[in-house]
Backbone:
């Protein structure tokens, strides 16, 4: 498993950035790294994980995380990533749009976060095993130029993360019409949005 960690410049948030594209240096990765620049400059610890480098499986519907364990029962490279996600203050999920949805690599991670829900979560007052206060940002790169196509991806997954009280603060950075490798690097508007989002996330929360 290949995990890359940026140096810690000082006390701050623990940030896990998951790169869901199988294409190294792709458009969604470019967007995520822009977003993370102000966070790194503010002294927050950032870890980048290329999910395509890992041997991982999806959820197997064994339900052991609800009956016998407080974690996912599937043991593979994603097990360590899930523990890092449990500890992180901010998740950054970077993904391209493949066939109208996220690719299999990041979908496997999303499905395995089912293990973060407590038994009988639908009726529980506290539905998640995660500590409160976590935040999430998505960086979505879409080849098709029409914004009204595939715009349901973020709200669909955001619904689950919010409904189950996993996250109360979720952000979206989206670029349409970035099909070819390196196309995002020519989008100064997207870079500006990414940097502004990163600066906003870098600011202290609460009192």
Residues:
């Amino acid at each position: 498993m290949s995990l890359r960690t940026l140096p810690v410049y000082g006390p701050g948030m623990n940030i896990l950035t998951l790169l869901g594209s199988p294409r190294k240096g792709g458009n969604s990765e470019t967007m995520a790294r822009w977003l993370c620049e102000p966070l790194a400059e503010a002294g927050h610890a950032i870890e980048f994980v290329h999910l395509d480098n890992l041997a991982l499986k999806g959820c197997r519907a064994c339900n052991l995380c609800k009956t016998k364990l407080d974690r996912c029962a599937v043991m593979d490279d994603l097990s360590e990533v899930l523990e890092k996600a449990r500890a992180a203050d901010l998740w950054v999920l970077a993904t391209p749009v493949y066939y109208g949805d996220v690719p299999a690599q990041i979908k496997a991670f999303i499905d395995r976060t089912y293990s973060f829900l407590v038994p009988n979560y639908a009726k529980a007052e506290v539905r998640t095993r995660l500590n409160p206060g976590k935040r999430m940002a998505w960086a979505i790169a879409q080849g098709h130029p029409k914004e009204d196509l595939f715009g349901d991806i973020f709200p669909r997954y955001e619904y689950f993360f919010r409904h189950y009280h996993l996250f109360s603060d979720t952000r979206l950075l989206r670029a349409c019409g970035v099909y070819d490798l390196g196309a995002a690097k020519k989008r100064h508007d997207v870079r500006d949005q990414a940097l502004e989002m990163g600066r906003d996330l870098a600011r202290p929360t609460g009192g």
Confidence is low (pLDDT under 50) at residues 1-10.
